[in-house]
Amino acid sequence: MAVTLQQIADKAGVSRGTVDRALNNRGRINPEVEERIKRIAKEMGYQPNRAGRALAMSRHSIRIGVILQSIDTPFMQQVKDGVEAAKEEVQRMGAEVEIKEIGGIDASAAIAYMEEMRESGCNAIALVPSEDEFLKTTVDTFVQDYQIPVVTFNSDIAGSKRLCFIGQDTLQSGKAAAGLMSEIVCTHGKVLVISGHPTNQGHKNRAKGFVEELKACRPDVELLDMKYAYDDDWAAEKIVEEALHNTEELAGIYLTASGVEGVCKVIEHYGMAGRVKVISNDLTGKNEEYLKKRTIQFLLGQDPFAQGNNSVMILFHKLFDGIEPDKEYNYTEIVIKNRYNI
């Protein structure tokens, strides 16, 4: 038998109207009481009447804004596929999803889109952020002052009041890459780390995890100064050309983000494929081609579709069903591929 609002009210010691306000996020209720009611409802297995909620939405619409940065990368296109699938699903329940795209990393553009979304009536926002103090302040303002929940995905923004994060545990991903590199790189070789954007927390964490773990398990390997390619193949190509010209015994390259095509182009041109071990991220078409050709030894995937899809669905369930995310960090799986299991 379905659990009723009155049963929840009786157990919580409050009125039915208070339960209704708590479960439907209508405010005018003590936050501690609201949290207790939601906990009791979850424990009792309460399932909201979705038909009734859909009817209510005709009077109070749900509009979710999504901001995608680095949209010009193949990986982020896969993230967008997940967003589009979620958009189609929630639209069947009467919700709206507004998507904005940014080429590269631009905190000012992200902030401008957030303000534009607020003015257009968005009551929740999913954001691929960068590490920027003004952006962090803006997120906190939206959550605290405007009561607009914000979810971060793919990359996080440390210390903000965002609702939760959806994406890879990038520090652990970097450590996993270092473990793989330690098994295949030659003794006393030199390893180059090419990162993406210095303001992207995910890129920074991968690099940090890789450097820490490789130093710990292979102290004989020399780590060269880290370089930034800003998700650009041309920049990555030039970085590797310079490394090959100036560095003897270049034995390995780890990329935290995009730029694989530029790296592999140089490696193949100089006949170094297989001799210089390459580990990178993301199971995109070009990356997989280089993996099959043995120019890349390992790729680490992070389920981009789930990142985009879950960010929208978590916000929808919060607004539509009054369901809070189960945890603050919703990590996607770290998938390791080589040429044998691609």
Automatic annotation (TrEMBL):
Location (main, coarse): other
Intracellular or extracellular location(s): Cell envelope
Gene3D superfamilies assigned: 3.40.50.2300, lambda repressor-like DNA-binding domains (1.10.260.40)
Entry's transmembrane regions: none
SUPFAM superfamilies: lambda repressor-like DNA-binding domains, Periplasmic binding protein-like I
Coiled coil: none
One GO cellular component, as annotated: outer membrane-bounded periplasmic space
Pfam families xref list: LacI, Peripla_BP_4
Ranges of residues in domain HTH lacI-type: 3-57
GO biological process: regulation of DNA-templated transcription
Molecular function (Gene Ontology), one example: carbohydrate binding
PANTHER family: ABC TRANSPORTER PERIPLASMIC-BINDING PROTEIN YPHF, D-XYLOSE-BINDING PERIPLASMIC PROTEIN
UniProt record similarity statement: Belongs to the bacterial solute-binding protein 2 family.
Protein name: Degradation activator
